[in-house]
Structures are given as structure tokens and as C-alpha cells.
Amino acid sequence: MSDMTPDNIFCKQTAAALRENEEHFRLLLKDVPVTVALQDRDLRFLWAFNLCTIPPAEIIGKTDRDLFPPETAERLISLKRRVLETGTELHEQLWLTSGGKRLFLDLFLEPWRDAAGGIAGIRIATVDLSTMKSVQEALAQSERNLREKEERLAHALEAGELGSWSLDAQTGQAWRSPQHDRIFGYEKPLPEWTYHRFLEHVLPEDRAEVDRKFGQAISESTEWNFECRICRIDGEIRWIRAQGRPRLNERNETVQMVGLVKDITENKKIEAETLRIKEELERRVLVRTNHLRALTLELTLAEQRERKRLAGVLHDNLQQLLVGVKWGVQDAQRKARDKDFRQSLKQTAALLDEAVLASKSLAVELSPPILHESGLVAAFKWLARWMKEKHDLTVQVVADLEIQPDTEGVCQLLFQSVRELLFNVVKHSQTKAADIAISAVPGQQVEIRVSDRGVGFKAAESQSRSAETGYGLFSIRERLSLLGGRMTIESSPGTGTVVTLLAPLPKPTPLKRTGPERVVQSTEAEQKERKDPGAIPGCGSKIRILVVDDHKIMREGLSRLLQSLPDMEVVGEAPDGKTALDMAKELQPNIVIMDISMPCMNGIEATRCIAVEAPDVRVIGLSMYEEEDQAREMLEAGAVDYFNKAGPAQGLVASIREHHRGSKGEE
User: Fold this and answer.
1) 112 vs 119: CA distance, rounded Å
2) CATH fold of 524-664
3) Among residues 7, 260, 285, 529, which one has the fewest Cβ atoms lying within 10 Å of its Cβ?
4) Which tens digit of pLDDT belongs to each residue from 223-245?
5) Cα–Cα distance measured from residue 532 to residue 566, given in angstroms and rounded to the nearest whole number
């Protein structure tokens, strides 16, 4: 019954309340990183909660040396003895090691006094700040990293002389870096900067465009990029380049523009100098190109002159001598009485014919006279006939303009180029047909397309092919390029080849359309008469003849031949067309034997004039060349017939008699 005394009941109730409060305390601090403990003066634990996750029963009676590593224990003991000795509270944050972990603790120590006021021990409270410390250290490290990046960025901007800025789109207020203000001439940053202050620095002639771009960037939320000139605070004019990007709010409206600005004055100077150097180089290249073009033209003209000179030597000297000798041999053959001697003279005349033919062929290949007298299209038509005769290549020529002879050498270059291309067709294409198309294209240029439907080739082979001849594809391309033209090749195996030449257009004229070519045919009576030139086809006066040729040997030889015939009389000789016209009007001959190629006035023009001023006079053309175009032009000018000097004299004699009879109205 004694246990039920009021004191005992109170004590039990108090103990129960304490246990309950302790349990509540433990539950309250269970998940909180807080440690609470009590030690006596010998620093033995009397009570502890949340100490190193060790059960309280295992802690009671032990010291710090029993629970912690030596270094940690000695540090704690040192702090606690200071509290015992001084009787003052102590608050310190420190790193400790417990349970193999490093902990950052907020440590509170205060004396525990007994009822008499003496120090009976130490009350201990710690808060584990390890997580918070880690977060703080991570944050501090991030801040350090951010500062380092900002410093590096600032250094980079400084090194690149870039100013950074941020502009409030609503207020026009701007944050900027020191370099930004230095670009505008301020050694020290201004207290404030606004968009309007910036515009005041922009030159008036650039200001409206800069402001327009800014308004557009704000309204459309696009980048604000521009270059302009500014006037610095010291009055110096500089160039800047600025780039800005918008920052948007939740309504996708531009609230801020952030960007960079750079002084590009030196860049502009470099650009201007680069442009000046470029223009100077282009000028020098143009001068050099024109010089090369002039040299190319001179080379082409020199080649043309040499070809014409050699052809002229053959035509004006060798061929005339050979024909003169041949006519002398034919005259001697007609007069000879000995049969064997006549046969020998006949063989000699045949050999002379072969020599004349070989000389003519070489002269024409060197420099076709039709190219210099009738133009490029006529020369291509002659070339087509020549390729058919020499190489059995059928060439069709289609043209919508005529190109007159030029003094710049363009026609000569184009002719030789096309001839080389046709040679390539013969050698490589494995076909017997080709086409030449001539047309004018914009830019005062002529386009010539040489095409075939042969085996074709890979375009890369053109380099190797060009090396096979002295006037190959490479030479054609280079010479055309220096003349301001170009050459293109379209070809692949099995598809044929198209080579297009483009060159400056020399003196184009519309192509003269003509009817069918006139073919002078001999009648049966005429053929019989030509076999016997000595026969006199009737009675009457002699045929009065004017011989026109710029070669004295030819004139004299032909005159002797005609003068030896009983029905013919040579009344005069003329060395050129102008003299022939004057003598024809004065002497009124029945027949004029007219050479074509002569100085002062050629035979075609002289014939045209005689047909008008002396219509009763009959003109018979005579030339070393057999070109159908020249024969047609001669006949169109008014000639009644056309002969080749290298042909038999009988045909010329018969034609003289025939047309003399026709002029008299004889049957």
C-alpha cells in the first residue's frame, strides 16, 4: 500500500510523462539531422540521441575516443575541455569524420550545472549541415565557374574589341559593357545609355535605315543586324557592325534585344584596299588579255599573210608560168608537122596540167581565195565540196547570214578551226557525213556548230586529240578565248559529237538567196568546134579580142595563142579591171577575156561595169580557180562563160567563136 502514496504516484506519473515526452522528442527529431547528448566532467556520455546512428544503449558510459577516429575525437575533446574550463558556451562549425563519412556539423556546447551551480558536465547539440554545405559548395563552385566564364567572355570580347549590350524594348534603356562605350569614344562608361543616344551617334544619312531595321526587328521579333557609320564623341567618323537577337515574353513579344557591336573601320579600309587591288588586278589582266588578244590576232594575221604569200607565189608566178608554157606547147603542138613531135608535145602538156593542178591544190589549201573574196559562208561551201572530193565526206552547210572577209583574222581562224574539226570527223568519227550551221547570237557574236552522228568520244580525250595536229582543239580553244570567244564540246561514246565555236561577229550581212546554180553546157556543135580550134566556122571579119590579166606572161601567152588563129585578132591587153573598162569603151572589142583576181578592180566588178557601159561586148571569165561560187558571181555580173586557165585552150577558143556568132545573130 506504501507504493500508492501520493509522492510515489506523482513520481510514477512524472516518469511516465518524461518517457512519453522523450518518445515524442525522438519521433520529432527522428528524420531531422540533429544530435543531442549529455556528458559528465570525465566526458563520458550519460545520454545521447541520433549520435552517429549508434543505439543509445551502446553509447552510455563511453567517451569520444571510443566512438570517433582519433583525429575527430581529439578535436572534440579539446573543444569540450575548453567549455568545462571556462564555463562558457561554444558554437563552432567544423568538418568531422564519423562512420567513415565526412560530416559538416553546426556544434553547440554549453556547461551543464548541478543544483549547487557547479559544472557537472556538458550539454551537446549538433546539426548536420553536410547536405546544405555540399549544396553551398556546389553553388559556390558554380558561381566561381560562372565568374570565370564571365571573365573569359569579357577577355574574349575585349580581345575581339566587341562591345556587348542589352536594350529594353519598352523603355529604350540599355546595359552595355565598357568596350561598348569605348567604341563610341567614351574612355569611361557613361552613367546611362539609351537607344536615342545611340541614334544621335549614327550619321544622318544612315540613321533612317538603322531605325527602320530596329522597328522591323522589334515588331517581327527577328534579328537586328546592320552596318552603319557613327560619329564618335571626339568627332571621328567610324564604321560599326551590330548584331542583336530578341528575347520574348510569354506572349512572344520582344521585350529585350541583346547583342554585340564592333568597330569595323579597319575592315572597311581593308575591303576598300582589297577592292582597289582587285580592280587594279582586273585592269592589268584586261590589259594583258588585250595584249595577248592582239598578239593572237597578229599571229593569226601573220599566219594568214604567210599563207596568202605562199599561195600568191604559187598562183602569181609558178601557175602562170606553167599555164603560159602549156599554152605555148599547145600552140607548138597545133603547128607541128611531125607526128612523133606532136605526141611528145601532147605528153608535155599533160605533165604541165598535172603540175598546174598540184600547184593549184596546194595554193587553195594554203589560202582559199574565196575566203578573202566572197566571205566565210562561201568558203565553208567550198570546203564542203573540197572535203567531198578529197575525203568522201558529205558536209551540209546551213547559214542564216553571210560573213564578209575581214581584216582582223577572225574569218581565217574560224575557217581553219572548222577545217580542223572536219579533219577530226574524217579521222575519228567513223561516219561519212557532217553538218555546219552558222548563225548570229546576241552580243554581236557568230555561232558555228560542227556536228556529226559518229561514234563520239569522251570529252577528256579532246586534250590528247588536240596534240595530234598543229591546229588542234586546244589551240582552237585558246585562240578563240583570246579573241573573246569560246569553244564547247558535247560528246559521249555512241552519240556523235557537237563542237560549238563562238566568236566576235565580223561584218555580218544577210545571206543572199540565189536560184539554182547556172551550169554552162556545150552543144554538140560547140564540142566539135572545140576539138578543132583552127577551123573557121564561117566567113567574115576577124573576132576582135581584148585580153585582161594582171600577169604579163599569161597575157602575152594567151594573146599569142589567139593571134595565131586566122579568125581572131587581139586588139589590146589590160593589166587590171579599171584599164579593161576604159579600153573596152574605147576599142569596142567583140570579146573580152577577163581574169578575176586583179588589182585596182577585180574581174567581177569590171564585168558588171562593162555590161552596163558597153552592152554589146561579150565577156568570158578566166581564172586559175575552179570555184563554182566565183563562176556563178562572174556569170551573174554579166559574163557569158567562165573557164579555168589550166583547162584546154580548145574550149576557150570555141566559146569565143560561139558567143561572137551569138552577138552577130548568126545561125
Assistant:
1) 6
2) Rossmann fold (3.40.50)
3) 7
4) 999 999 999 999 999 999 999 99
5) 13
